[in-house]
Amino acid sequence: MSTGKWTDYINPAVQNMPPSGIRRFFDLAAEMEGVISLGVGEPDFATPWHIRESCIYSLHRGRTSYTSNQGLPELREEIARYLAGQGAVYDPRRELLVTVGVSEALDLALRTVIQPGDEVIIPTPCYVSYIPCTTLAGGVPVTVATRLEDNFRLTADRLEAAITPRTKALLLCYPNNPTGAVMDRQSLLAIAEVVAKHDLLVISDEIYDRLTYTGRHTCFAALPGMRDRTILLNGFSKAYAMTGWRLGYAAAHPDFIAAMTKIHQYTMLCAPITAQVAALEALRHGQSAMEQMVAQYNRRRRLVLQGFKEIGLPCFEPGGAFYAFPYIGHTGLSAAEFAENLLREEKVAVIPGDVFGPGGEQCIRCSYASSVDDLTEAVKRMGRFIKNRTAGRAR
Ligand code: PMP
């Protein structure tokens, strides 16, 4: 029975979901030649060779089967060892679940804890999945715009002001995508106090933990009293340049992990064994390769910040991840206009800050996970673009 209108068959929750604002820019950029893209949130390195090799070797040996639903026991042990080093101790048998990227872990965490109408506080600007995944899980996203003057950190008073009797969870992401903001231990302790006072859960996406350039990363679950009310998410995509392998994990109280594993066993069964073998190698022997990549990102971070300064683009200093989030309000353009015109006129792709939710309207996201040559050229082109704008406005 076809009415010719197949959209009528589609769940309105999905129909009403806006497509990712990032994709739109990729599509625009893909149609043009000579574009330098600072748009993608992805390392420009290939996965370190020894990690790829371990996977090839395991395939040679015929390791092509399913694993246990929760993931290879030896991988979970290695993850537990890593997290213990961050001050968060987990039992690898009952408190860890290996997932298909942090993406799956996030979806599982939200679907596991949310009941229809539950509010989830999401500090913004935020990673593009948080709001749609919360909605799809039946939750109500409550955004709290972080501010440039707070260095894009969530403050305890702004968090407290957003809490209602329906608030179930807080979704944290530090180091942050898209701002590059990090939270120091003191500021996180203030957040933890509010969380405990209002009996909230925290879903803490710490996928960029290793990409911290200023100070040391604080694992939210390692703060006093937070372990059992936190679902900690992390993965291999960013630190080990393993985006395409699709591997992440969740660490939490056994009640949460058991519940999340129920969904995971029916929807995914298990994460791919190839990726799990590679992740094991990454944790066992990948430290030095990872540190070299992080040192490169840090070098590029400084280069981009210096470059922005020279071209008159004000930018707060990002302490983590691989994004800069400069302010473009003074150009008189909206973030979308800035990004579109910059792409058309100078062939540099950046992402308008408003696609990451409230608080990003006057900023653009520039990923510096690109080569030094590309970054240098991109900054030069952006400088020319801004000069033309300001000259035009002065006339
Ligand atoms: N969380 C954040 C904050 C991210 O930036 C990304 C990827 N851009 C993800 C989760 C998804 O990561 P994964 O590749 O592990 O699914």
UniProtKB/TrEMBL annotation:
InterPro entries: Aminotransferase_I/II_large, AspAT/PAT-like, NHTrfase_class1_PyrdxlP-BS, PyrdxlP-dep_Trfase, PyrdxlP-dep_Trfase_major, PyrdxlP-dep_Trfase_small. The keyword Transferase applies. It comes from Desulforamulus hydrothermalis Lam5 = DSM 18033. Coiled coil: none annotated. It is an enzyme of class 2 (transferase). PANTHER family: ASPARTATE AMINOTRANSFERASE (PTHR46383), ASPARTATE AMINOTRANSFERASE-RELATED (PTHR46383:SF3). Residues 34-381 form the Aminotransferase class I/classII large domain. PROSITE patterns: AA_TRANSFER_CLASS_1. Its cofactor is pyridoxal 5'-phosphate. This is Aminotransferase.
